[in-house]
Amino acid sequence: MQNTQDSRVPINFEQGRGYEPIGVGLPDNFLAGEPDSVLKTLAVLFTSPDPQRINKPCQAVAMLAMYAAGAQVDLTDAQYRQLDRAAEEYQSQMRCSQWPRHAQPRNEAFAAYIRRQAAARRQLSDSLPFSARLATLNFEVGRCFGPVGVGLPANFLDGDPLHTTAVLAFEGAEQSAFNRLSHRQLTTLAFLYTHPNPMRCNSWGQALAVLALYGAGAQVSLEPEQYRWLDDQVEEYESIMRSSEAPQHAQAGNEAFAAYIRRHGRERAREDRLL
Questions:
Q1: Distances (CA, A) of 63 to 73, 121, 237, 273
Q2: Which of 184, 213, 186, 198 is nearest to 58 (CA)?
Q3: Residue 32 carries which DSSP code?
Q4: N or C end of the chain: which has fewer CB within 10 A?
Q5: Is residue 204 within 8 Å of residue 144, measured between CB atoms?
Q6: Checking DSSP bridges between strand 135-136 and strand 73-74, what pairing results, if any?
Q7: Contacting residues for 22 by C-beta, under 8 A, at least 6 apart
Q8: Is 184 exposed, middle or buried (0-12, 13-18, 19+ CB in 10 A)?
Q9: Residue 187: predicted pLDDT
Q10: For the chain, what percent of residues have pLDDT higher than 70?
Q11: pLDDT tens profile 207-246
């Protein structure tokens, strides 16, 4: 994994999202960086592990960032428009001239960048060689307790050969093949555990998403206790998904996804000397 520790920013788990300056500490030329890294970082900064501290506009911005970063998901036209409209509304709020105390030019620039990248991804989606291997989502149901990743190939976590070939050909090989593909898988899982409606979110899904993006190389730093809290939440979810005491909740695929996220989160935590 590429070491970007000098440009990493902390996450405040106790603060809401979107209406205070986002990304304080990021370099002025942050948006000129490698798009995959920029988008994953912004996704973390616009969402929160605490479902009580998220809101619809910022959750939409975070999901568009993951989508633009290449999450292996298939959004319908209506779903994409829903996210983009919410992000556009947030962008408008951040440049608000009627209430200048709410204006945040850099937040607006982040949202505009994400919307541009997501629009570019949308235009390319039909021509991507792995377009038939995308997960589908239902925005009308919650996350975590039904099957996650419907539509993904059975060997998704192992690196589907056709998808692997397509990604490397489409994106080049700036990172090692393992890192690039594991990061794509983690970004996909982060998207799948996120929901545009805060009322349908829970602490397990939000922790899964944040830990997945952290493991995928988002340029953020965690305190040891923050990492442990995320890991504990994901471990608890993993246990529920294999539960023999409550078989109605058992989902072997979801359990495997949680274990994958924890493993990569732990690898990143070791690199950051949190363990």
A1: 11, 13, 21, 29
A2: 198
A3: G
A4: C
A5: yes
A6: parallel
A7: 42, 45, 46, 104, 106, 107, 110
A8: buried
A9: 96
A10: 83
A11: 999 999 999 999 999 999 999 999 999 999 999 998 756 6
